[in-house]
Design goal:
Helix content: 10-25%
CATH topology: Nitrilase/N-carbamoyl-D-aminoacid amidohydrolase
Strand order of the largest sheet: 5-4-3-2-1-12
Radius of gyration: 17 Å
Largest sheet: 6 strands, mixed
Order of helices and strands: EHEHEEEEEHHEHEEEEH
Oligomer: single chain
Distance between the termini: 29 Å
Number of strands: 12
CATH architecture: 4-Layer Sandwich
Length: about 260
């Protein structure tokens, strides 16, 4: 049996760009101490997701470049592969992306968000057009970002059909005024998002690892679903910390993704 330990950075939302880097490097060090091979951060963790009422400063490419260098140095020091939810400025405007950093501190590549929620398109007008898979030792993985994983299951299948044993799902969600506030994973009153986590795993015979920030009343939390669609573990709602999971890669066969006859992906 080949087992790989992963970690999800279910951290408090940073209030400033500099705080996001401090939180990220501390989490990387902790993931290294816990011997995780891969650590995944939520969507746009650096510099922070730009909610409609955000007070974050305007996008700063120089800050982002230095932040990526700092995180890469932390990844190398800890010996951890990092999936960093971040943003970058492009010719088409601001883009949501994930920077995949190898355990030696080199950048393996980027997974840009290709399917945006309609509410995001004004703030983040640029979108990705290509997908990829990445490796960390014996683990092959894909990355789908927030809305992609919730509403476009084809993005998960794409990665699994190309060998991904786990698909990481960095996302961002906050409590809405007067909205329902879940307290326990699996409560029938909770939103569809928990069910989607289980479905993405079961319909592809892969692990699905979804990560959000910890905030009071958030409608989602971080969780890992097994290839049979059962829940392996979930972070208690609103509680900051690393969610660590040991994945049995022999269970992630990708069987159902491979058997799909109707999808061109």
């Amino acid at each position: 049996m080949s087992t790989v330990r992963i970690a999800l950075a279910n951290l408090r939302e940073p209030t400033t760009p500099s705080e996001s880097v401090q939180f990220a490097t501390a989490a990387i060090r902790e993931a290294g101490r816990q011997q995780a091979r891969v650590l995944c951060f939520p969507e746009c963790f650096i510099p922070g997701y730009r909610w409609p009422d955000t007070k974050l400063p305007a996008p700063d490419p120089l800050f982002l470049e230095q932040a990526w260098v700092t995180v890469a140095e932390a990844a190398k020091a800890a010996g951890v592969t990092v999936i960093l939810g971040t943003e970058r400025l492009t010719e088409r405007g601001l883009q949501i992306t994930a920077c995949v950093i190898n355990a030696d501190g080199t950048i393996a590549g980027w997974q840009d968000k290709g399917q945006l929620d309609p509410s995001e398109e004004r703030q983040y007008p640029a979108f990705g057009t290509e997908r990829g898979v990445f490796t960390a030792g014996p683990l092959t993985f894909g990355v789908v970002i927030c809305h992609e994983g919730w509403r476009y299951p084809e993005t998960v299948r794409w990665a699994v059909r190309r060998g991904a044993q786990v698909v990481f799902h960095p996302h961002a969600s906050q409590a809405e005024p007067g909205g329902y506030r879940p307290t326990m994973f699996g409560d029938p009153a909770n939103s569809f998002h928990e069910k989607a986590i289980l479905c993405r795993a079961a319909e592809n015979t892969c692990y699905f690892a979804s990560v959000n920030c910890a905030s009071d009343g958030s409608p989602t939390t971080s969780a890992v679903a097994r290839p049979d669609g059962s829940l392996q573990c979930a972070q208690p709602y609103g509680l900051p910390g690393l969610l660590v999971a040991d994945l049995d890669l022999s269970a992630a066969t990708g069987l159902l993704a491979a058997r799909c006859r109707t999808s061109p992906l």
